[in-house]
Amino acid sequence: MQFLKIKEEHLEQILKWRTSEFVTRYMYTDIEYNLENQRKWYHFIQNDPNSYYWLLRYKEDLIGLVSITDINHRDKRAYWNFYIGESKYSMIAGFIGPYVYNYAFQRLGFHKLMGEVMEGNEGVRQLHLKQGAREVGVMKDHIWKYGRFHDIYVYEMTKSDWMEKGKRFVNYMPVVEI
Questions:
Q1: Is 42 helix (H, G, I), strand (E, B) or coil?
Q2: pTM
Q3: Among 5, 80, 86, 168, which residue carries the largest CB count within 10 Å?
Q4: Does the structure show a pLDDT above 80 at 178?
């Protein structure tokens, strides 16, 4: 698995994924298909010292996006997020977490990663649990979307928990373009 640096030439592909029903149904917000706004987002993330964003490349194909955001440098914690933009690669989703955990804990020196999942996204909720993350709570009626409020499930993984629970994924280290 490769984590590639996002370049301006990728923005249209990312925007196609992000506005597709396959991806946006579980995102907190819906965005319009607007390349100029996408460029503004790109310039923002390029200058944000508290986040990393990469394209996911599996074999030779770009398949989605992964990020580490809301980095708290003092406490060595952050949130991780991802989406698969190409539905034919949805089966790869279960392998992304181990790559992110290994990179964040071993290379970036984080102590804890957290994730949030919108209700209805049962596949991703199960992925967090299967990889050993702990569900730490539910934020009730947290997101307004599709004419109603949705619950958000919160997960966490500490470095020590990952070192114990993720032993079988020890070789899942992404090639990361910085």
A1: helix
A2: 0.93
A3: 80
A4: no
